[in-house]
């Protein structure tokens, strides 16, 4: 062999050694990397479990907050309209009081009875007002289907179209809720 061939052979051997060292280094790094991945894999399930539990806890907390808010709103609504059933039962009584007060007494006894009824009626109206009951305004107002029930439609001069001409039965609201709509005649 010539010297040139020997140098080439040595260079090839050195290159192979370098390649082998690179492969060994890569294998060592891969082994270390695998060990790191194993450690991370062992930690990741724990981290994943912690994250899942944290998310679950946040959802439960949000559900609980929503439940408390809904319960508070329902309790406020129940307190706001607690007397609705009683008031709805008293509305016919109020109507009958108003009809009775329209009668004109002829005797002294009837007059004293009427004044007693007026006092009871005022007391009843004050009590209803303190509970938040309001009479729905009608005559001269524009017709509102949320507040009024049109029973008749008439054509009368002096009233605009869709304006209430006459109230046939009073309507009442409890705070912002309609208990009974007003029965009215509406101008065509």
From TrEMBL:
CDD domains: GrpE (cd00446)
Biased composition (Acidic residues): 18-43
UniProt feature, compositional bias: Basic and acidic residues: 1-17
Transferase recorded as keyword: no
GO BP terms in the entry: protein folding
Single GO cellular component term: cytoplasm
Entries under PROSITE patterns matching the protein: GRPE (PS01071)
UniProt keywords, alphabetically: Chaperone, Cytoplasm, Stress response
Subcellular location per the Swiss-Prot or TrEMBL entry: Cytoplasm
Pfam family for this entry, one: GrpE
Keyword Cytoplasm: yes
Top-level taxon: Bacteria
Coiled coil ranges: none
NCBIfam families, sorted: PRK14140.1
Subunit structure: Homodimer.
PANTHER family: GRPE PROTEIN, GRPE PROTEIN HOMOLOG, MITOCHONDRIAL
Function per UniProt: Participates actively in the response to hyperosmotic and heat shock by preventing the aggregation of stress-denatured proteins, in association with DnaK and GrpE. It is the nucleotide exchange factor for DnaK and may function as a thermosensor. Unfolded proteins bind initially to DnaJ; upon interaction with the DnaJ-bound protein, DnaK hydrolyzes its bound ATP, resulting in the formation of a stable complex. GrpE releases ADP from DnaK; ATP binding to DnaK triggers the release of the substrate protein, thus completing the reaction cycle.
Family classification: Belongs to the GrpE family.
Protein name, per record: Protein GrpE
Organism of this sequence: Alkalihalophilus marmarensis DSM 21297
Lineage: Bacteria, Bacillati, Bacillota, Bacilli, Bacillales
Gene designation: grpE
